[in-house]
Amino acid sequence: MACSIVQFCYFQDLQAARDFLFPHLREETPSGAVRRDPSKSNWEDDGWGAWEETEPQEPEEEGNTCKTQKTSWLQDCVLSLSPTNDLMVIARGQKAVFLVPKWKYSDKGKEEMQFAVGWSGSLNVEEGEHVTSALCIPLASQKRSSTGRPDWTCIVVGFTSGYVRFYTESGVLLLAQLLNEDPVLQLKCRTYEIPRHPGVTEQNEELSILYPVAIVTIDGFSLFQSLRACRNQVAKAAASGNENIQPPPLAYKKWGLQDIDTIIDHASIGIMTLSPFDQMKTASNIGGFNAAIKNSPPAMSQYITVGSNPFTGFFYALEGSTQPLLSHVALAVASKLTSALFNAASGWLGWKSKHEEEAVQKQKPKVEPATPLAVRFGLPDSRRHGESICLSPCNTLAAVTDDFGRVILLDVARGIAIRMWKGYRDAQIGWIQIIEDLHERVPEKADLSPFGNTQGPSRVAQFLVIYAPRRGILEVWSTQQGPRVGAFNVGKHCRLLYPGYKIMGLNNVTSQSWQPQTYQICLVDPVSGSVKTVNVPFHLALSDKKCERAKDMHLVKKLAALLKTRPPHLDLVETQMKELILDIKYPATKKQALESILASERLPFSCLRNITQTLMDTLKNQELESVDEGLLQFCANKLKLLHLYESVSQLNSVDFHSDTPFSDNDLAVLLRLNEKELLKLLALLEKYKEEKTRTATVRFSDDKDGVLPVKTFLEYLECEKDVVNVKKISEEEYVALGSFFFWKCLHGESSTEDMCHTLESAGLSPQLLLSLLLSVWLSKEKDILDKPQSVCCLHTMLSLLSKMKVAIDETWDSQSVSPWWQQMRTACIQSENNGAALLSAHVGHSIAAQISNSMTEKKFSQTVSGADSEALTDSWEALSLDMEYWKLLLKQLEDCLILQTLLHSKANTPASKVSSVQAEPLPRLSVKKLLEGGKGGIADSVAKWIFKQDFSPEVLKLASKERDAENPDEPKEGINRGLLEAAEAETTLGAIPDLLHLAYKQFPCSLELDVLHAHCCWEYVVQWNKDPEEARFFVRSIEHLKHILNAHVQNGIALMMWNTFLVKRFSAATYLMDKVGKSPKDRLCRRDVGMSDTAMTSFLGSCLDLLQTLMEADVSRDEMQAPVLDTEDAWLVVEGPISIVELALEQKHVHYPLVEHHSVLCSVLYAIMRFALKTVKPLSLFDSKVRTSEALRPGSEPRAQQARAGQAEREEETGYTCQLSLCMHLSVSRPQAILQVQDKEVLASQLLVLTGQRLAHALLHTQTREGMELLARLPPTLCTWLRAMNPQDLQNTEVPIATTAKLVNKVIELLPENHGQYSLALHLIEAVEAISLPSL
């Protein structure tokens, strides 16, 4: 493996970001208008306010400069990328763009990650300030379910005003801090890293901010807690609307850097501790031989700056507030350190109104003074000016760039320059740290180093990445003194991004829970709009003149180049490849080389075999200790597969032909069938073949059946522990592999016995071979049906496989199911090629019967006498559970074959009459599909075929006329009506009536005429509902509905059609026509009903036919019994959804008057549409009770209509009885009328209402003084109830109060005591008695 550069992300619209940050670079149209791509709609208009600004045009002499800036604009921006790649910031001046990654499909249909705009706008708060630096810091989640994962990303931005502001991903300002009044030069971050060994000091997290003469460091833990608190407060403020929230305080340290002219960049090394020798050396130089030191060296924070005078400066700040040591007196900071440590930051900016913010900004907060910190030493070079510094991941090295075009490598601990690169002006630098993979470490025999075994610790390598924009080259160097290991031409306008930190908020526990996918270094290319990263293998750190791995990689490259060529002499190429693969030292690289050779398509089989055999022999001749077992086993497995390929190829190439003649009699004996059964089977297969040939698509002959390239063969198979298995491959690849093994054998062109022996000895299991054999047989149905003698070959092959070891368990009992035969039956059940499946099932049944008989004969021979055993003849068959399953499968496959033959057949229908829906092919059938399709699955399949052919219902009658002749008692309605149509159809149907009759005979229950008509009716209405413009589908559905003879089924299907498909459209049509008062126009019909005016006319006519049929069925269903739905014996185990007919039989009775109302309404609607009537409102033709009654609304469901109509009928009956009783003053004959009412409670409630109306009329409407006094004495509940009564509904108001009193007593008798109105009736008795006393 070599160093590589990989693209991992793209920009969705980088040009729009450039136009936003650099308005003068926007391309303009000839008219001067700003060009804006309408397809780029992902940018919010609110964020691009600067686009509306008018920018002054550049002078013509600056045209070249502007053109250059259009490509190099990214060099002038502040750029930052989160180490978790979930946010990128591009800023310039006062504006910034936040980009977030999203997974989207590219133009090629491949899913890829693209950076899209998440937020854009201006960041400046004070006038005139600009962005100078930015960081994207991911903060760790505190949830238990996502420990160690990033929760959100904070954007830290430094400004020329000295402010440092913190934002969310959506651009919300969290907090701002004025730490120094000078411009912010650089922002850098350090996050937690687990120490690699106990000698490394654990570093704390911090954010460091560089100013021209000061460094401010913010403790990471304090910053993490403050940012979390601010984010929570922002969320609360957004929810509550309160914006005046005071952010929490922040602790920081501030150091004033002294004895240095200018500072451009810095690096915070972290806490370090001097060794005892360095401590004594420093004390001696400063204090002389009388200097004293403490036992433990103090901890110090180290900072390195680059600039001028000195070129690099080294600063050391003493940690803690204890008395400084003598060795550090020269620093002169100990006495002043206490006042500067952990001061609370002042000058916070809250979320206030604009006026309040302006007032705060005018009064800048107090800035704390810095603690002086003098430079201890540096690299003095008065002419050299440093430009940037980049610290290595393990804090031991640092790379510095200067204005002389040099890159200098510093040893951080010793403070010296250890290496220099020349010719890198304006260079951008970064680091890559690679950890060794212990699995790739291979010890040499003489390697006695502590790292010579895979149990030692992983080594770490550091590579320096240098991007030289002036040369457009990206280089990777091994440090400290290593060579260049990679170089890439990347363009001259890129930006190299090296964050140098990871997730903030982790510790030694949470950092181990989850390792985020991070890229240590990224290259942003604005020209191609992509983001790239560099992959460096660890072994490149070992690259020197004696490195074996580097030599091996060179040999692998040479081998790859050799494989791509087309040399004239293969022998010479084979020799060169052998030399190359033997010269490779590392076993893993040898395996990689051998894999590339075996995957080549240009090398012949002999070359692959010879190279693999040579490598195998070389490994065997080596000492056992120095041989890699994995490589040896890999070679042995590949060699075994190559030998298998060679053996099978030789067997397939041998000219082998069987001269044995094959007749129908031989086939009958082979399949254990008599002559009649054989003729029936051949006739079914011949019909199936004819119909399938008519509908088959064009298929080109495949001359490569049975041929498989060796490369593909090795890709399909794998060998492990002397067992050959098939990898997870597709169905087509599985068939290709099976054809390579068995296709010649099935054609009788190869020896079946030799092939089985070869495959068995190679280690392929019988179950795997059976699966491959059946996949070939079932997929090559056309070729098999054309060559019947292939059945004999299948019989021979299957017999040999069944006799293999572990194929059929020796302990198999006849009363249990054999897994071997169950595997074969399962394959036949799942196959959609029913002809081949039926033949293979017959072969399997024959062999299973033969084996079962022989095993039973053995058992009998041990228990019975010899004479009895001789009585067993060939016609005798042992009874076993497997045989019963075979017979069931044969019946199911035969049924499925007949049904599939019917579905393959087609009538000569004119193409103009066929819609696009009808032209779609039907899915193929299998026994499994029929078993899972439910009891109505067979009829549903035939109904779909009838819909595709668009047959008249009379065709189904015509096909069943023989059944009608056998059953003369069945009604013959409709036959005479369709004789002419059926006679015309018969001339173009061909063999379809015979096939239909055969299907009827095979499925007497599932394809019973009423069942078939019901499914056809439903299929047509379903297809009509998908496209209402096809009105003929609905008409045909009604025709099938009328042909259903059983009224129960007819009623249920009609009711289901109304509920599911028609009621909403009918309701919409009714209200539309009532609204416009005439036949609506096409536009209104399409808008409200979803169909054209022509289609709606046909729709209303069909609805009228349906309602008429529904009424006739409702009348006729009482005169006949509901049908009994049976299922054929072979299909009793079907599972799946409930059939349409069963659902139809579950439907309840309809309310005949209600259906009649709908029929009248439908007739009116149809007449309006048919004759284009005007000024007719259909609903106005009905009285108010009908219009307002909920039961008569066209949109209400018939079930609910039936319930409500029944209740309305009972209430009408009760009200009639009540009025009759009152009018006759409850004479002697009237109580008999009361006794005729079944619902006594409803009657009592109605009588109670009438009583209340009488009392309300007497008390409230007469307005007498006595009545008012009596009303005042009544209970409040009774008064409220009386006031709610409407006496205007009374037909007779002059009823004596005594009669009303008797009526109330009758109500008391009818109401049970637990009734809700019983107490109200008692109050009424008291009120009536009170009224009758004063004789009002």
Automatic annotation (TrEMBL):
<dbReference type="InterPro" id="IPR032839">
    <property type="entry name" value="RAB3GAP_N"/>
</dbReference>
<dbReference type="InterPro" id="IPR026059">
    <property type="entry name" value="Rab3GAP2"/>
</dbReference>
<dbReference type="Pfam" id="PF14655">
    <property type="entry name" value="RAB3GAP2_N"/>
</dbReference>
<feature type="domain" description="Rab3GAP regulatory subunit C-terminal">
    <location>
        <begin position="1232"/>
        <end position="1312"/>
    </location>
</feature>
<dbReference type="GO" id="GO:0005096">
    <property type="term" value="F:GTPase activator activity"/>
</dbReference>
<dbReference type="Pfam" id="PF14656">
    <property type="entry name" value="RAB3GAP2_C"/>
</dbReference>
<feature type="domain" description="Rab3-GAP regulatory subunit N-terminal">
    <location>
        <begin position="73"/>
        <end position="497"/>
    </location>
</feature>
<protein>
    <submittedName>
        <fullName>RAB3 GTPase activating non-catalytic protein subunit 2</fullName>
    </submittedName>
</protein>
<feature type="domain" description="Rab3GAP regulatory subunit C-terminal">
    <location>
        <begin position="769"/>
        <end position="1187"/>
    </location>
</feature>
<dbReference type="GO" id="GO:0005737">
    <property type="term" value="C:cytoplasm"/>
</dbReference>
<feature type="compositionally biased region" description="Acidic residues">
    <location>
        <begin position="44"/>
        <end position="63"/>
    </location>
</feature>
<feature type="compositionally biased region" description="Basic and acidic residues">
    <location>
        <begin position="30"/>
        <end position="43"/>
    </location>
</feature>
<feature type="region of interest" description="Disordered">
    <location>
        <begin position="1192"/>
        <end position="1211"/>
    </location>
</feature>
<keyword id="KW-0343">GTPase activation</keyword>
<comment type="similarity">
    <text>Belongs to the Rab3-GAP regulatory subunit family.</text>
</comment>
<dbReference type="InterPro" id="IPR029257">
    <property type="entry name" value="RAB3GAP2_C"/>
</dbReference>
<feature type="region of interest" description="Disordered">
    <location>
        <begin position="30"/>
        <end position="68"/>
    </location>
</feature>
<keyword id="KW-0963">Cytoplasm</keyword>
